[in-house]
Design goal:
about 50% helix, 4 domains, mainly alpha, two-stranded antiparallel ribbon, 23 helices
Length: about 475
């Protein structure tokens, strides 16, 4: 096939492997994948001719095409020799997928081909082997924290020798533990994901093929969590995660925030509990709340700093109503003043800050205080809805949850009903008819407006108080 420019050329997603991009490129132009990239390519050791072909088809330069392969990673990550052994890379016959987003959208990530990433950070669930039972199991917060740090180290290892040494030592510890782990070790590990001892013993030239077993090994071989001090893995590896450009980017972003604080009245109260997804990504999914909530926590801290108030991550999480979520490189880097990485800066600046300003600086903190105290729908709303649905307890509970997510832009974890899954609220939104949706939206607006009329504290702004006032 002539490598002529194709009419439809989607942009690669961050962290997307070449094989996944080739499928999207082929589908967008009505071609089979083999016309774009040979089916036997495994995103590593890709010949320059294939990179040149896909670059010509999608208008990508050589650097952008190489970014989609594992060839840019050091030997510590991608393995040694033509068979890519003794690294973090899985055997080419082992494929890990997300039971949530891969099944629904085909989403895959390059680092899923390594033992560094046994979870999907977008859906906060464990990966599974392709072809196995498609059940999404939520990942433990400790696992998400460890994997987030290892992903940052993998990117830093491309240019930093210290990060490569850290990853090499971590792999050796995992391999040694996999050969000796037993039920006693699992008992001391606390709340760990399920471990397959037979699969653990298979960690040799290639890592263990079972994702949950790998996740447990990563937690057990990591440093223990301290009290209030910064996590040990961040103290040891901070220099491997941030450079001078990241520190300059943080200083520039703080300067910009100070301008908006003084000129536009920007305050931390204007930050929702969950930031919007980056431009060009799919619509927000229920499992993507963790990374977007971490970004909201980081922005809350930055605005407080710009306003002259030092704020800890715990204080920011308390204000947003998401106490207990695991920290990450973004939050710890801002708290320590180490820097702001480019991908995090892209998430905060155009997608979040500009949207807050364009929306007119909504006081989300006030909305959270008001709606958290509302325990039932108003009588007027009940009378305007069909009795066949208002008599169902699930409808009343999900209707309040729907109002919460629409008016606070936060996950259900930040509400008064943290046990309600976000996916249930999304399914409820897809089931209700337009008239019900409009009525619930008007109800949310009225609940917020009535609080202003009554001039009562947020903690007492229940619908019972409003009903007593109006009879």
């Amino acid at each position: 096939m002539n490598a002529s420019l194709l009419p439809v050329r989607p942009a690669p997603h961050p962290g997307e492997p070449l094989s996944s991009y080739a499928v999207r490129l082929a589908d967008a132009n009505g071609l089979v994948r083999g016309r774009v990239l040979p089916a036997w390519r495994h995103d590593i050791d890709v010949p320059p001719s294939d990179l040149s072909t896909i670059g010509s088809l999608a208008a990508l330069d050589h650097a952008a095409a190489t970014q989609l392969t594992m060839d840019r990673y050091p030997l510590t990550v991608r393995g040694h020799g033509p068979q890519r052994r003794h690294g973090w890379r899985l055997h080419h016959a082992v494929a890990w997928v997300c039971p949530s987003c891969t099944v629904s959208t085909g989403h895959r990530e390059l680092l899923w081909q390594t033992a560094l990433m046994p979870v999907c950070l977008r859906c906060s669930c464990y990966l599974i082997r392709a072809g196995y039972l498609q059940v999404a199991v939520p990942a433990h917060p400790r696992v998400l924290e460890v994997v987030q740090t290892l992903a940052g180290l993998a990117e830093a290892s491309v240019a930093d020798r210290g990060a490569r040494q850290v990853l090499y030592r971590r792999r050796r510890r995992c391999q040694d533990l996999a050969a000796t782990i037993d039920s006693d070790s699992l008992g001391r590990g606390g709340d760990l994901p399920p471990v397959d001892l037979d699969a653990a013993r298979r960690w040799g030239a290639y890592p263990c093929p079972d994702p949950t077993t790998v996740a447990a090994l990563l937690v057990l071989t990591g440093p223990r969590r301290g009290g209030r001090s910064k996590p040990a893995h961040l103290r040891c590896h901070q220099s491997a995660l941030f450079n001078d450009a990241d520190r300059d980017r943080l200083d520039w972003f703080l300067t910009r925030l100070r301008h908006h604080v003084h000129q536009d009245g920007l305050r931390p109260d204007h930050v929702p509990s969950m930031l919007p997804p980056p431009p060009g990504e799919e619509e927000r999914t229920p499992g993507a709340w963790l990374s977007l909530t971490r970004a909201a926590t980081a922005l809350h801290m930055l605005i407080s700093h710009a306003a002259g108030h030092a704020e800890t991550p715990g204080e920011a999480m308390t204000a947003l109503g998401v106490v207990g979520i695991p920290s990450c490189v973004l939050i710890d880097g801002i708290h320590a003043g180490q820097g702001l990485r480019e991908q995090d800066g892209d998430l905060l600046t155009p997608a979040a800050l500009q949207e807050l300003l364009a929306a007119g600086l909504i006081d989300y903190q006030r909305r959270r205080d008001i709606l958290r105290a509302v325990t039932r729908l108003p009588r007027t709303t009940h009378r305007r809805l069909p009795s066949v649905i208002t008599t169902k307890p699930a409808f009343r509970r999900l209707a309040l949850a729907w109002i919460w997510t629409r008016f606070t832009h936060g996950p259900m974890r930040s509400s008064a009903w943290p046990a309600i899954p976000d996916r249930d609220v999304q399914a409820f939104d897809q089931r209700i008819d337009p008239e019900t949706r409009l009525l619930l939206h008007e109800t949310g607006q009225q609940l917020i407006a009535d609080t202003d009329l009554l001039q009562i504290p947020a903690a007492q702004s229940t619908w019972a108080g409003i009903a007593r006032r109006y009879g």
